[in-house]
Amino acid sequence: MSTAENMRTGAMERVRVPKTAEVVAQAIRTRIVRGEIAEDDALPSEAELMAQFGVSRPSLREAFRILESEQLITVRRGSHGGARARHPDITVASRYLGLLMQVDGVLLSDVFHARALIEPIALRLLAQRDDRVGATERLLAMYDKLGKLTDPRDRAEGWTEFFLTLFDLAGNKTLRLLYGTLTEVVRQEIVEWSRHDTAENTEATAKAVAKAMRLVAAGEGDKAADFWRGQMFLVEQRVAQTHRGRTVVDAVTSG
What we know:
Blueprint: H1 3-9, H2 20-33, H3 46-53, H4 57-69, E1 73-76, E2 82-85, H5 91-104, H6 108-127, H7 132-146, H8 152-170, H9 173-185, H10 187-195, H11 199-217, H12 221-242, H13 248-254
Antiparallel strand pairs: 1-2
Helix pairs in contact: 2-4, 5-9, 6-8, 6-9, 6-11, 6-12, 7-8, 7-11, 8-9, 8-10, 11-12
Pfam families: FCD (PF07729), GntR (PF00392)
Domain HTH gntR-type: 18-88
GO molecular function: DNA binding; DNA-binding transcription factor activity
């Protein structure tokens, strides 16, 4: 069938034309992510933006609502209000990922399994860097402070910061964002684990961290990764046994 025949019969797929608000939101979004509008900078007034884009006030405000939902701007209402740019944090991505996981019935053990696969990669990457000795000293100092925390929420935050710093030092931003997003999804679960952690587990973890850092400092990336993978799989097994069949949605609704 020819293109003309397709068009006559309505068989051709319709092309979706973006709404005016979506076009405006995309233009402002691009300026923010490129740094043309710095964080906390005020956007031009509504009147200026309406003139610039040639749109109505309702279309502009709909664009603002889109950008607010993405946490790219904050809007203060009133005579002294206006829109200001902001940089979204990792909770934006984790919120949507967590929602998808809830819909798909993803098990908590599945999320911990994914983290167990990613953490060893960071150790391998860090072991390949020339500055690995100084990096491991910094991580061990962080862990030393972490070990002195008693509040479960503080300990959970400390663990998260420890591993995000590990990924920073490893030098792979994509892995850091992926790991951070997965961690954010199970943040409350990590707090619960910290609350019920035992002195025996704490001591074993300290020894494991020290060994992994020694291997990294020595440039033994493969050995460090293999060792830490084994440690994380033990954690994953504990999660699977403790929360048999428990899903991400269960953790969210009970948190």
